[in-house]
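Students often ask why we bother encoding 3D structure as a string. The short answer is that it lets us treat folding as translation between two languages. Here is a chain of 71 residues written in the first language.
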Amino acid sequence: MSQKDELIQRMKAKKAQMSADLENLKLKAHENKNEKEKELESKIEELSGDIKELSNNFSESVAERVNKWLQ
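And here it is in the second language, the structure alphabet:
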């Protein structure tokens, strides 16, 4: 597996975990969105964009940003 493929898989796993966390928060707070929920939604959107960018443009700067984000 190439580094690019490995990073993409790690990002997708992180996105799936954050989506699951978001769903759990939604179950706990049906009516009001709390800050954690908004934060997770924002990170999921950012991660989706990063996955697309990484898939199309595997540069060292993108890889560095992704690795920092995944830590």
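Translate back mentally: The chain has a mean pLDDT of 81. Keep this in mind for the problem set.
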